[in-house]
Amino acid sequence: MIDFEPIIGMEVHVQLKTESKLFCACAVEYGAEPNSNVCPVCLGLPGVLPVLNARAVELAIKLALALNCQITEYSRFARKHYFYPDLPKGYQITQYQEPLAHSGHLVIDKNRIRIKRIILEEDSGKSIHCGSETLIDFNRCGIPLVEIVTEPDIRSPVQAVEYLRNLRQILQYLDVSDADMEKGHFRCEPNISVRLAGAAFGTRTELKNLNSLRNVRDALEYEIKRQTEILKSGGKVNQETLYWDETKMVTGPMRGKEESEDYRYFPEPDLPPLVITKEEIERIKQELPVMPEKRKEYFIQTLGLPEADAQILVERKSLADYYEAVLRFLWEPRLVANWIISEVGGILNERKITIQELAIAPQSLAKLLAMLKAGEITGTVAKEIFLEMVETKNDPALIVAQKGVTRIDDENLLNSVVDEVLETNPKVVEKYKKGKTTVVSFLVGEVMKKTKGRFSPQKVNEILIKKLSNT
Amino acid sequence: MIANSNSSPKELCDLSITELRNLLINKKITFSDITDSVVHRIEEREKRINGYITLFIDQAKRQARELDLTKEPLTNLPILCGIPIAIKDNILVKDELTTCGSKILANFIAPYDATVIERLRASGAIIIGKTNLDEFAMGSSSETSYFGPVSNPFDCDLVSGGSSGGSAAVVAYGGAIAALGSDTGGSVRQPAAFCGVVGIKPTYGRVSRYGLVAFASSLDQIGQIARTVKDCAILLSVVGGWDEHDSTSVKEDITGILNFESGVSEIKVGIPKEYFVEGLDPKVAQAVDNMIKTLTPYCASVKEISLPHTKYAISAYYLINMAEVSSNLARYDAVKYGYRYQDAKTLRELYEKTRGEGFGQEVKRRIILGAYALSKGYYEEYYGTAQKVRTLIRNDFEEAFKEVDILLTPTSPTVAFRKGEKIADPLTMYLSDIYTVPASLAGLPAISIPCKDKVNNLPVGLQIIGRPFAEKTILSVAHWLEQQ
Question: Where are the strands (E) in B267-365, listed by range?
């Protein structure tokens, strides 16, 4: 059996989170009325000139630094020419021979994926084909993009997806982009070839139309199989751009296949060279937040969280930030982590809201968990109080006081409730006696119901088993 | 001094900005008198000259009447108040046609004002019309316009020069007091020379290009045309200066250029020997030489200097020019504005037919050559080499300006030529820019003023080139020579 190895490189275009476009003052706004955020500059009318958005440069540098890149202190913009109706100037302002940043890397499971270059460029408009007509929305035209290109260092579809997931996380951490794939903030175009292990690189194909990580993985897997079969049967892979068909799950040639492109790049004469000083780079470096990998390590090593928990927390920066904020009021790393992952995370997922929208102050959650930790309330009650907090935004101590749900330790009272439950559920007791010991949890639930969760479940369990064994 | 009007007495439309302002302040004339005089002259001469593509006569008259009603003391009014100014038709004036002399933009209404227009309006100027030009400013004779050629006011069988031929011609015949043109490789200086008026191309970056339809972006600069050096200086001081909309404009002080009446006694003059060689009409050389002789006794020194790479300037200039043309004109694709071929079945056909029919021959020639110069495998050889030559030419000037303050040269190797004489032979046409192109490549300020002597009764231009941002110096010398 001959083994072919995939060689994958990744090109990602990311929309930067700026208020205005790259070369004009038009707003960047998703879902606005078509052609409402446009002006003579982004429409490429005669006589207009571009003026660079300094904020976009700063965001791009932030990203470049987080990806361990070298920043080019003197970079230039270039014009890339091609004719298409949604490209109003007939060229795109991008970077070519002098990119903003280069020679970086990102470590994925101890494998170093080298970043070849990061460039800053403008987005094109959006063509909407309906029937025989094509409509163009120029709102997107001129939105700042960064293009992040790796060396062909990726060796499997899983690793490719891992790389993309990590990259997206970094973008969100830096608050450089929302990196929402569905909204087109994050577009990936992998290139792939296969070779016999150790042999020279084969001919590669480029894949387009991948708007989810799942598509990326499926398309790469398909392409590996396709190329391997071609080579095994003695054929040749064509160098081409292929389009992923999500429904048929195959790659195919692009519609209206492009001719071999010559973009006639040349330095953009309307913009002076982009000069970035060492001081500026240093300043931005100081402002970088802790990156997810470092943070995860801290959560595991110092806070003693299980890896899976640490992973879930760092995946969403806002969640990890919230976690650390709660810790500042209550130093119970594992308890707080459990709660944020299951209870807080559960509500966020269920209601599809962000932690900001949930609007529970870190100190409120800390207060609730402190009561739980001190044994003032039981876990069951704590969950109820939490839901109440979500609804009313009231202070947890206030809710506890109003509801009168502090934990009860009166063993006599508990004994009498347990007796009552055992009397009213003779069939269950019967089952237990026949060896079906799992029914205890049902009985615990019944006791908790009657006592509104004010007894500790452990205690209830203990007493139940004692009584069942004695009868 | 006024073209073809030697015998007739001067009218208001023949006066300078300063003269008109004095008359206004002393209440000898009204604003309407000025506009009426200019309009009257246009009615007399325009038909044969074809200097304007669009005229705003009614608006101009209305504006003048409104100014006449103002209660504000005239001395408080801005410097160009009520002065009719003509604008080359590649500069955008809001809500008016901006055709660039091309079929492809023949119906294009500008949706915004160029920065220079905003500044003219703020200084009270009356925009009297949009002037004719070579299509997209590509040419040296104003013959390639979709709206027909411009005639020289001295002789209608001759060209006005180009590409700002319309602006130079209307200023020469009194159809405007002053005008804006654009100069990429001599397009203000050469027509000014052919029409016997003053034309300045400021340092690259002096005047905002926002709203000037791009031709060759690294060379384009809006220039000023008037009948006196002082009027040029006033116009430049109004429209020049940094603009947030143009990243290549500079924050250098502009008002200082108005202190140009400082004499020439400290000026060191250089005569570049490479400019006085074969191809230069001996009579033109003589007229220029007489100007140099006039200056010599009064300035600090005159010496011959060398600009050794001059002979490569035209080739390098046209390569850079065409490369930028092929890029800048890519936007005329029928999608959003401008001429559109109606029966296209495919996108490709839409592009080909629109651009094939919408652009004239010279424009298409440059787009094709420029695209070729930028294409894969040829870029280094053509565009790359041209950029290197450009650096060498810039260095030549830097070296020269270590020794002298200004350079004196002819503006053009000949006086105005006959219509049709060079239009079929692009290379000969390109060579008529041979003395103006080097300063453009180096981004230097340069002015053309009429020599005292005429050749065959036609004006000859003297070019004065200065250091970057030394407009004041070249204006000083030009003004001094004008007063002799």
Answer: 268-272, 301-305
Interface of B with A in 342-361 (CB under 8 A): 347, 351
Q: Which of B16, B80, B460 is nearest to B229 (CA)?
A: B16
Question: What does DSSP say about strands A101-108 and A111-122: parallel, antiparallel, or unpaired?
Answer: antiparallel
Beta strand residue intervals within B154-285, DSSP E: 155-159, 178-183, 198-201, 221-226, 268-272
Which residues in chain B have their CB less than 8 angstroms from residue A46's CB? Answer: 92, 98, 100, 105, 108, 110, 213-214, 331
- With a CB cutoff of 8 Å and minimum separation 6, the contacts of A177 are A14, A15, A16, A17, A59, A171, A185, A186
- Of the pLDDT bands very low, low, confident and very high (cuts 50, 70, 90), residue A255 is low
Q: Which residue of B has its CA nearest to A25?
A: B245
The residues, ordered by sequence, that sit 6+ positions from B414 with a Cβ below 8 Å of its Cβ are: B281, B284, B432
Cβ contact (<8 Å) for B247 and A88? no
d(CA A92, CA B389): 27
Query: With contact defined as beta carbons under 8 Å apart, do B309 and B393 qualify?
Result: yes
* Residue from B242, B248, B335 to probe the interface with A (highest A Cβ count within 10 Å): B335
Q: Exactly one of B5, B16, B37, B88 is catalytic; which is it?
A: B88
Assess whether B388 carries a catalytic annotation: no
Residue of A nearest to B337 (CA): A45
User: Residue A19 class from Cβ within 10 Å (0-12 exposed, 13-18 middle, 19+ buried)?
Assistant: exposed
Contact status of A44 with chain B (Cβ, < 8 Å): yes
N-term to C-term CA, chain B: 13
Give pTM, 2 decimals. Answer: 0.87
> Mean of the per-residue pLDDT values for chain A?
91
- The model's pLDDT over A203-241, given as tens digits with 9 standing for 90+, comes to 999 999 998 999 999 999 999 999 999 999 999 999 989
- By Cβ distance, the residue of B111, B209, B218 closest to A45 is B111
What chain A residue is nearest to B334 in terms of C-alpha separation? A85
B369-395 per-residue burial string, b: 16 or more CB within 10 A, e: under 16: bbbebbeeeebeebbebbbebbeebbe
pLDDT tens digits for range A32-62: 999 999 999 999 999 999 999 999 999 999 9
Using alpha carbons only, what angle is made at residue A88 by residues A83 and A90, rounded to the nearest 5 degrees?
35
Catalytic residue among B145, B187, B237, B448: B187
ipTM of the complex: 0.95
Residue A91 touches partner B, C-beta closer than 8 Å: yes
One-letter-per-residue 3-state SS of chain A: CCCEEEEEEEEEEEECCCCECCCCCCECCCCCCCCCCCCCCCCCCCCCCCCCCHHHHHHHHHHHHHCCCEECCEECCEEEECCCCCCCCCEEEECCCCCCEEEEEEEECCEEEEEEEEEEEECCCEEEEECCEEEEEHHHCCCEEEEEEECCCECCHHHHHHHHHHHHHHHHHHCCCCCCCCCCCEEEEEEEEEEECCCCCCCCEEEECCCCHHHHHHHHHHHHHHHHHHHHCCCCCCCCEEEEECCCCEEEECCCCCCCCCCCCEECCCCCCEECCHHHHHHHHHHCCCCHHHHHHHHHHCCCCCHHHHHHHHHCHHHHHHHHHHHHHCCCHHHHHHHHHHHHHHHHHHHCCCHHHHCCCHHHHHHHHHHHHCCCCCHHHHHHHHHHHHHHCCCHHHHHHHHCCCCCCCHHHHHHHHHHHHHHCHHHHHHHHCCCHHHHHHHHHHHHHHCCCCCCHHHHHHHHHHHHHHC
- pLDDT tops 90 at residue A80: yes
Please indicate if any CB of chain A lies within 8 Å of the CB of B323.
yes
Question: Which portions of chain B are predicted below pLDDT 70?
Answer: 1-8
Backbone angles phi, psi at B434, to 5 degrees: -60, -30
